[in-house]
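Field reference: sequence -> structure
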Amino acid sequence: MSLKKIASMVGTSVSTVSRVLNQTSSTCASKELQNKIWAAAREIGYQPNEAARSLKRSQCPQAAAPHISIVLARITALEQEPFFAELFRSLEVELLKQGATIDHVIYAEESFSPNFSQNLSSSSGVIILGRCSHTLLTHITSQNRNVVGIWRNPMKFNVDEVVCDGKKAAELAMQHLFSLGHQRIAYIGDCSFESRYVGYCNMLIRNDIPMDYDLIKQTNQTRDEAGTALCELLEAKLSHKTDFTAVFCANDNTAIRVLELLQERKKELGKTPISVISIDDIEEAQNTRPYLTTIHIPRNEMAHMAVQLLLDRIARGHEEIVRIEFPCRIMQRSSCFPVS
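Structure field:
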């Protein structure tokens, strides 16, 4: 039995493996153990019993389980990118529900390796996770015609795509800060070809607030670079070279580090707190101090729709290019405060 084999591989009980793979409880195992269980499931090509029974009943060759490749186009390690790690897990769950198997997981730097083309051409379909260059997309589509992309920004490529517009998410975050009276708002995140930065700038312009480039910090959206960026902002603030009352971070990953540093330097900053808002709503955002106000990106729904689109294209259910955009919404917690 596959569940027993997975339990043996990772050193846990069959019931724990079942709860993790069926998503019956998010707290039934540690994150580390959950990752090991999913890795083992991918390794042995685990299929749920119902899917196996359905395949066995069918006499049609086309009923074979789809084999899917996932290309992580923007990142080098899932453990360093919580948003993409959670989105990837949502994809695993959805593919498992649909009786599909993940054949290959390919990172951006591997995209032109000798095995890349062979892996893609042997798969039933491909899901691209994260912003993809035109060069990489052309290479992917030359190897496989069944492709769907999941990304924050509409790319308008010639493939099916599921998006949640990063510019609109940024505008929603900025609007929330404006409603609390903030006008001096710092930005920490990517500034090059990044729709979240465009949303930040657009909202300043719409509200007749001059751009202050001293408050804009270009980073690769990692926690280390966010920490450096905030320290530079704080030094300028404490030395009265500039001032700000809020920080808009391009993602939760950077915002979490910003909140940590603000707590550490609370005495220096005095009684007036600095508000922090970001985008993604990863699981860790609910465990920060204070709890992080952020823009929710509907990962589970995006994963569900991406899998449905891909399987429909594999089955030749549609030929035209489809783009599905999900709305975002604000998760108001306790990291944003009215201006005194």
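Note: The first strand starts at residue 67 and ends at 72.
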